[in-house]
Write a structure and sequence with these properties.
The structure holds two protein chains of two kinds.
Chain A: H1 8-16, H2 22-40, E1 43-46, H3 48-63, E2 75-79, H4 106-113, E3 117-122, H5 156-163, E4 169-174, H6 180-186, E5 189-192, E6 212-217, H7 220-230, E7 260-264, H8 274-289, E8 293-297, H9 302-320, H10 338-349, H11 352-365, H12 370-394, E9 397-401, H13 417-421, H14 428-433, E10 437-445, E11 448-456, H15 461-474
Parallel strand pairs in A: 2-3, 2-4, 7-8, 7-9
Antiparallel strand pairs in A: 1-3, 4-6, 5-6, 5-10, 9-11, 10-11
Helix pairs in contact in A: 2-3, 5-6, 7-15, 9-11, 9-12
Chain B: H1 5-14, H2 21-38, H3 73-77, E1 83-84, E2 87-88
Antiparallel strand pairs in B: 1-2
Helix pairs in contact in B: 1-2
The chains are: A alpha/beta, B mainly alpha.
Chain lengths: ~500, ~90
């Protein structure tokens, strides 16, 4: 097997046994990026020189006999909404096109401290608003399985980079499905941890009560390894949960005999492509074969999650994005007076979808509408969360599709915001409830990957990894590969 | 309820967004479509339901009131579109 096909845990062994050096591995990845990324376009910025420096340092430390972490010397990439000191961080927006953060995000700091090698920053929907990465202010990222198909979004660059082996793993952020849906479309593993498990310090905010950072990886073991590095309390994020993290790899070999798994019927209704539904049934059958008990259940408020989400998320966004005013960083367009400068800067710097969501959120919070929209949505959020709380008194986890379809084509939904929003119908309720969810590949439909989603109770990442691992070890359907890449 | 172009202009003013005539039309249409869809929430009885602003059971997170190093002034200003005498420079306000 070629180096670029290996997972982080396989590479870890080779590095620790001195079979390869980090520099050699990093050169392999940078070479791969220079050949492939003209077509895939997963990266906004490639940090080749920095990566080689970091790799060289790790090799020296290893040669000096230092004990290094599991991810030391392994090339990775970050979504371009995570701050990297001295490396441009754009959120794929024209308004931040020249922004060079003076500090590292908590996740950047943790990974670099663990010896990770940063090869670049990944393209995304501008300010993480979108489900196809078509809303990037710069360019479109292609799905490594089919260049006419979107990679999903908003972490489309992060998912495509892993699928195309342009990075061993990446981080994405997930506000309503932005890690899981692109993971599903690109045939990789994506985890949205429980709200509060990973520090959001230095993550450019979209909707603060929903945003969470998580890994996109080639397999479940890598997911656990990356989560081990990035999880845990951080005093710089006041919404960081004061809960000590377990060793997530310790859940991987427990088997799933006797686990109770619920299949909410609301996630199998109209709008779910028949092929996706049939993959889900196959997954459920496999879980039963492995000793789990699967049965249908109900989360009755599911249909209200989407409208509630688009009120809450846009309201929070309208407030969070007020900071882009051309004063302290980013784009400035001069105007007659300061208000004019604000308006011109924001009018020119934000793209169509970002402005649409700022408008929607501003409206929902404006005098006379606050109670009808925002407060109503917060109450519905309680009901959605209660559904999950009730389900988890009976089940260890829930199984659903990650997205209603496989990757769609460029332009197919970009003119119709509501059609695009419906992409996230299976992932949004999870963010409202704040619980963790894992997407893993399970089969291909006409050459495109299908993702299934495991949803757990708060801080129940271990159970999701355990179930995901059992499926992965027992079904080849969890390991699709983009065959077409050879031709690209 | 129908959003008019003049409502859109009002919201754009609140949001400090300069919109072209074409954008005003586009967002008026979007707001009507999306808010129309949001009407389904009115079918849900939320009498007596507490709102959830966030899911963590955390209130006021405190830390010791001790001095810690902050961001260096030069670093803080490095990204400024315009600066003067160690300050962010903006057009005249008063």
């Amino acid at each position: 097997m070629a180096l670029i096909d290996l997972t982080a845990h396989e590479l870890k062994d080779l590095l620790q046994k001195n079979k390869i050096s980090s520099e050699e591995l990093t050169r392999e990845y940078l070479n791969r990026i220079s050949i492939l990324d003209e077509k895939i376009r997963a990266f906004v910025t490639v940090t080749g020189e920095l990566a080689l420096q970091q790799a060289g340092k790790i090799d020296q430390r290893r040669a000096a006999g230092e004990a290094l972490g599991a991810l030391a010397g392994i090339p990775m990439a970050l979504k371009d909404n995570m701050c990297t000191r001295g490396v441009k961080t754009t959120c794929s927006s024209q308004i931040l096109n020249n922004f060079i953060p003076p500090y590292d995000a908590a996740v950047t700091e943790r990974l670099l401290t663990a010896g990770a090698v940063l090869v670049g920053k990944c393209n995304m929907d501008e300010f993480a608003m979108g489900s196809s990465t078509e809303n990037s202010g710069f360019f479109k990222t292609k799905n490594p399985y089919d260049e006419k198909a979107v990679p999903g979004g908003s972490s489309g660059g992060s998912a495509a980079a892993v699928a195309a082996s342009e990075a061993v793993y990446t981080l994405g952020s997930d506000t309503g499905g932005s890690i899981r849906q692109p993971a599903a479309f690109c045939g990789v593993v994506g985890l949205k941890p429980t709200y509060g498990v990973v520090s959001r310090y230095g993550l450019i905010a979209y909707a603060s009560s929903l945003d969470q950072i998580g890994p996109l990886t080639k397999d479940i073991t890598d997911c656990a390894l990356v989560l081990n590095e990035i999880a845990g309390p951080d005093p710089r994020d006041s919404t960081s949960a004061p809960v000590e993290k377990p060793d997530y790899t310790s859940f991987l070999s427990n088997g799933i005999k006797g686990l109770r798994i619920g299949l909410p019927k609301e996630y199998m209704g109209e709008g779910i492509a028949p092929g996706v539904a049939s993959c889900l049934k196959q997954a459920a059958a496999k879980l039963e074969e492995l000793g789990a008990v699967c049965e249908e259940t109900s989360l009755p408020h599911t249909e209200y999650a989407m409208p509630a989400y688009y009120i809450i998320a846009t309201a929070e966004a309208s407030s969070n994005l007020a900071r882009y005013d051309g004063v302290r960083y980013g784009l400035r367009i001069q105007g007659g007076d300061i208000i004019d400068m604000f308006k011109k800067t924001r009018g020119a710097g934000f793209g169509t979808e970002v402005k649409r969501r700022i408008m929607l959120g501003t409206y929902a919070l404006s005098t006379g509408y606050y109670e009808a929209y925002y407060l109503k949505a917060l109450k519905v959020r309680t009901l959605v969360k209660d559904d999950f709380d009730r389900a988890f008194t009976k089940y260890d986890c829930l199984l659903t599709p990650t997205a209603p379809t496989t990757a769609f084509r460029f332009g197919e939904k970009s003119q119709d915001p509501l059609a695009m929003y419906l992409q996230d119908v299976c992932t949004i309720p999870i963010n409202l409830a704040g619980v963790p969810a894992l997407s893993l590949p399970f089969g291909l439909l006409q050459g495109l990957p299908v993702g299934i989603q495991l949803i757990g109770k708060a801080f129940g990442e271990g159970t999701l990894l355990r179930v995901g691992y059992a499926l992965e070890q027992n079904s080849a359907l969890t390991r699709p590969r983009p065959d077409r890449l050879g031709a690209m | 309820m129908k959003i008019t172009v003049s409502d859109t202009e009002h919201v754009a003013k609140l949001a400090r967004l300069d919109l072209s005539e074409q954008e005003k039309k586009r967002y008026t249409q979007s707001l009507n479509d999306i808010l129309g869809y949001m009407e389904v929430l009115n079918r849900v009885d939320t009498t007596g339901v507490e709102p959830t602003a966030h899911v963590l059971k955390l209130q006021n997170v405190f830390r010791e009131d001790t001095i810690r190093p902050g961001l260096d002034k030069k670093l803080a200003l490095d990204n400024a579109p315009e600066q003067e005498n160690g300050c962010f420079k903006v057009p005249r306000i008063v």
